Amino acid sequence: MEIYQGDIVWVKFPFTDGVRSKGRPALVLSKDVYNKSSEDILLVYITGQKKDTFQIHIKAFCISDGELAKPSHIQYNKILLVERSRIRGVIAIVTKEFYKEVVSKICDFISYESRS
Fold first, then answer.
1. Domains present along the chain, CATH in parentheses
2. Which pLDDT does position 22 carry in this prediction?
3. Which pLDDT tens digit goes with each residue over 101-111?
């Protein structure tokens, strides 16, 4: 299966205990050249649960192809590398503009803050 940056994929996401997993959507962050040659894919978690922090709401116009089953949010503080074999399929594609917004939020989240 071909996987591209900006795809929303259905994944068997591992829980932090490393044992259990749950199917859910995720946005592909890794570049296409990496995705074509690697057994791992860099993803950011998507959730249907509304929280006040570390989220970007996925509006309908942010999707260029496909759809999500319910209102969803990028949980940009949850990024992980997942084995390609855990990905079950592509369910949607985000717009380039929305992808850039997600990356910007991630960069802000991980940017260096000097200690006072």
1. 7-110 (2.30.30.110)
2. 84
3. 999 999 999 99
